[in-house]
Amino acid sequence: MDNEVTYADLKFQDSFKPQRIQEFDNSREIEHPAPSPAWRWSALGLLTLCLLLLIGLASLGILFFQAQKTNIRQLNGLEKNLSLQLEAIAVISKEKETIQSNLTHALQEMATQLCRELTRSKPGNQIYHACKPCPETWFWHEKSCYGASIVKQTWEDSREACAAVNSSLVKIDNKEEWDFIASLQNRQYHWVGLYQNPNGRQWEWEDGSALSRDLNSLVSGDRTGGKMCAYTYGSYFYIDPCTDKHYYICEKVAGLVKKLIAG
Asked: What is the pTM of this model?
């Protein structure tokens, strides 16, 4: 009985084979339809459009980079022109400062010369004229101001007195200055900033510089016994112990001339 059932089943299954084959063939026909001509033209159009878009984008990119390159060249040119203009302005500014400095110096020289003439024009103007670049009661010569004391003091005290008014004991640099100092002395002895160094026995000025050879021969006398200092009278230096007392002359750098009003 089992054999009959099996045979029937097989026979039943075999009866379905032609139908499955037919259904498989139909499914293949449905899954792979043949492309139509309209679809091909549509795909070709889309491809052409994509190519045109790519070409357009490439053209825009080229134009953009060319424009950027042109802008960079223009900016470099502007930067170079600006640098040249700034350099020209700097040169003009420097020349202007030089011209102003030279003009100021020239005007100052003219004012100085005029003030010198005014101070020499009348007796007493050398001391009290308003344009004089020195304190009142001080004398003006070349680029220095000179103040003569009215009391006698030791050399050290004289030096301190000069320092108290922003000056120092007079230092004579040449014969012309010495002649001017002699004109201020009024037949009196005055300490100057010259002393004999106890170590080397050399004559030195208060600032440490040595006495010039042109003036060294004018030192009169050679005394020993402690620190020796020099005073001047007439055309010679004389020496005394620094503890002696004499009048003294202070010296300071002259300032700029003041208003040119006759006194």
From this structure: 0.59
